[in-house]
Amino acid sequence: MPRHPKKPRRLTVDGRAYVWTLRHSHSVEDSGRCCETLTLYPQPAVTDGPLRIVFTEGPGRYVPGGAPLGSGDVGYIRGAFLNLHEPGAVRALLDVVSARGWRREGRRVVEIDGWSLLEAAAAARAGAIGPASPRR
To answer: Where are the domains of the chain?
Structure first.
């Protein structure tokens, strides 16, 4: 039986467990533009709040709004892209955020513009799935 697309998924990084979800929405205050929100919930959630990585549609950028793009695809029209349904892509984004100094801040929700992370995460992901590396 296939996995329900809205069911939270689990990811473990350096011994720390996260549950993550991906949601598609339309920005009310921004002319209904498409938005993908990847939310990571550190586990156990009693001590740390979630991290939201947000990708909002804009000039030169795509966020899935239907065919011909696949669900979870985000990227630059002529450049880097990721599929946010892939655990390896989520891991790459989390690695970039962590390398840039993000630290959990108690129960507070932290929201980050995904476009500021995309190129570094896509490059790391491409290196991880090159011809000599197994796909994560």
So the answer is: 9-128
